[in-house]
Q: What sequence folds into this?
């Protein structure tokens, strides 16, 4: 493909922001009437008008807790609630109001906090002008309950999702829309929420826990969310503001050892996390705890990935997102380090750290093989995003085509080969998998950590081998979790029989 020959518009961001509602009737009417086509003609990026002053956001607020979705059920083991996907307006700073799309009026959306064995019943009411779904990212839910493309909820309609969380499913998850062609817009306008499944016996339950949701926000100078530019569609959308729980560079007090659950809820931004001069121990991945604590100096979270870390130390430090070159195309500005939050650490009473967190067994010897090849084609690009081709095995997504078939319970080895020019984070619906090895520049490296994941990054010219076994019959999808690439075709369908 032709590379770095393209000069497009200005690129950036994903809108996820927790702020108080400040709607006016006129603005609400404007938002209610919006109906953007996911694959229409490209909208010009909202550049700064001549003489306009750059928009800034306040920094330094205390890190707020996430809004929790209230359980309407009084029965033990039952979680029942309602989510409304609807337009609203938030005040991002005094005098600046931003129309967004939210679950129950907050962005990031609410946190669902449940236990293994619970039955979850969620009614989604769609008050958008587009079809939508809820995908329960990483959760082992039945295919018909997973909000896949093809099971959209029409505007003005509702549906109820219901599933029971099996023992062994404890972990850090999230939920977001998945209607093909509209996913990118619905997420960058604010639709995403968080989901924690807790174990019956958690070896780290004695530690204070904080939740850190990373997102980025692309705003025009008037405070409104910018449309996607051609750069956004090509590289994935990144915003000029990188937020934590909806705030720019918030502050946090850390006494002793804390457990941080972290979500990369960005559309495309990679987070190479570092906490200078303080201790950071990884204890969990997408699908829950590791077998044992694993000290790290930095940690890469691709879009869609989650991690759990234990932090401690003494003095002041900033959690940083260090620069990471993921191979963006076009005339893009250089990568740079970004401070995410500022923390003040104090030494407290030492908290016990178990040497074993859980037992993780290898899936076993694969009896079936699959290969997915990621590629892209920009040779016939026009100013229509749909002219870009992001492909798996040489094909763009077709909702009427089944690409792969698997058998329930069969252990498979999937080779994920990236023949494109940029990183692609691979996500598989319906199950967790284990990364077995990586092949890069002629070297094969066994994966250091035996862990459960549902998202893994694949670098250009790298192959990642995963072991996976689907446990429920039905249709699943798999795709790149740079959401613009997903919407433009880097997705396939799997039938589990």
A:
């Amino acid at each position: 493909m032709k590379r770095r020959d393209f000069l497009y518009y200005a690129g950036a961001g994903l809108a996820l922001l927790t702020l108080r509602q400040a709607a006016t009737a006129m603005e609400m009417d404007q938002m209610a009437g919006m109906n953007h086509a996911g694959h229409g003609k490209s909208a010009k990026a909202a550049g700064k008008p001549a003489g306009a002053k750059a928009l800034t956001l306040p920094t330094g607020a205390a890190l707020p807790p996430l809004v929790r979705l209230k359980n309407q059920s009084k029965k033990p083991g039952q979680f029942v609630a309602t989510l409304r996907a609807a337009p609203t307006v938030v005040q991002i700073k005094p005098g600046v109001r931003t129309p967004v799309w939210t679950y129950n009026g907050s962005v990031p959306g609410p946190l669902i906090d449940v236990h293994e064995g619970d039955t979850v019943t969620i009614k989604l009411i769609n008050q958008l002008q587009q079809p939508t779904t809820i995908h329960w990212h990483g959760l082992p839910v039945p295919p018909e309950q997973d909000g896949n493309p093809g099971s959209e909820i029409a505007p003005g309609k509702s549906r109820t999702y219901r599933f029971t969380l099996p023992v062994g499913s404890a972990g850090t998850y999230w939920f977001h829309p998945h209607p093909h062609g509209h996913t990118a817009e619905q997420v960058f306008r604010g639709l995403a929420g968080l989901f924690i499944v807790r174990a019956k016996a958690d070896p780290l339950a004695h530690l204070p826990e904080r939740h850190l949701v990373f997102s980025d926000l692309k705003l025009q100078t008037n405070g409104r969310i910018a449309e996607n530019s051609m750069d956004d569609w090509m590289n994935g959308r990144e915003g000029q503001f990188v937020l934590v729980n909806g705030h720019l560079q918030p502050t946090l007090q850390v006494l002793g050892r804390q457990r941080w659950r972290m979500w990369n809820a960005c559309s495309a931004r990679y987070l190479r996390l570092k906490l200078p001069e303080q201790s950071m121990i990884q204890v969990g991945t997408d699908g829950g705890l590791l077998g044992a604590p694993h000290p790290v100096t930095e940690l890469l979270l691709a879009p869609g990935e989650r991690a759990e870390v234990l932090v401690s130390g003494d003095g002041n430090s900033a959690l940083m997102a260090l620069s990471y070159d993921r191979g963006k195309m076009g005339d893009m500005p250089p990568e740079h380090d970004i401070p995410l939050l500022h923390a003040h650490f104090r030494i407290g009473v030492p908290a016990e750290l178990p040497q074993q967190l859980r037992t993780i067994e290898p899936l076993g010897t694969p009896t079936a093989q699959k290969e997915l090849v990621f590629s892209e084609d920009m040779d016939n690009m026009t100013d229509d995003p749909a002219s870009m081709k992001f492909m798996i095995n040489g094909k763009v997504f077709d909702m009427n085509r089944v690409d792969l078939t698997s058998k329930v319970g069969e252990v498979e080895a999937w080779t994920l080969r990236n023949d494109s020019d940029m990183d692609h984070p691979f996500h598989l619906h319906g199950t967790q998998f284990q990364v077995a090895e990586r092949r890069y520049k002629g070297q094969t490296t066994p994966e250091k950590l035996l862990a459960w994941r549902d998202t893994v990054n694949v670098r250009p010219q790298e192959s990642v081998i995963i072991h996976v076994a689907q446990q429920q019959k039905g249709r699943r999808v798999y795709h790149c979790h740079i959401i613009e690439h997903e919407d433009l075709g880097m997705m396939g369908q799997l039938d589990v029989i």
